[in-house]
Amino acid sequence: AFAKSINSDDIWPCLVEKAYAKLFGTYENLIAGFSLEAFGILTGAPTEQLIIKHKTIIERIEEGLLQGFAITAITPKIPKEKRDEYKESIGLGSSHCYTVLRIFTLTDHRLIMLRNPNMKLKWKGDWSDSCPKWTSEIREHVGFSMEDEGRFFMSE
């Protein structure tokens, strides 16, 4: 099982995940699947895949968030022999899906708040929990918390 809730009393994420796995035959078939497909099947909502390699992606994400869309970001598939090094060096999983929660505009850049649904790995780059760039003002502005609820920040 992969689904977890911040609230340990919630059982519904596990039930939905079990039903979804049943639809596809086994939990193993859910590994590294397409979140786009899952959203469409589970919600009946229209989905769209954007593969954008330039700055306009932030504007598209902001627009989608304002319209109430569920937005995810997926890391690239890393060869098996390099996955452990990838996880250790930057704290992200290979072919792993993260939920985009918000974008904060600061004076000189923007921060993207993401959530790791399995909460096992911790981002280790700029704006990670221990990054010296954090000031008390920025922490307060973005609602930064050291609690391990799977949320983390990255800059554009």
Structural class: alpha+beta
- Described by the principal axes of the CA atoms, the overall outline is globular
Number of DSSP strand runs:
4
Task: Report on the biggest sheet.
Answer: 4 strands, antiparallel
Portion in helices: 25-40%
Catalogue the unreliable spans: none
What's the tally of helices? 5
Averaged pLDDT: 81
Kindly provide the radius of gyration, computed on alpha-carbon positions and rounded to a whole number of angstroms: 16 Å
In order across it, which strands form the biggest sheet? Answer: 1-2-3-4
Q: H/E series, N to C?
A: HHHEHEEHE
Distance from first to last alpha carbon: 32 Å
> Strand content of the residues, in percent?
15-25%
Q: What topology emerges from the helices and strands here?
A:
Layout: H1 12-23, H2 35-43, H3 56-66, E1 71-74, H4 83-90, E2 97-105, E3 110-115, H5 136-142, E4 151-155
Antiparallel strand pairs: 1-2, 2-3, 3-4
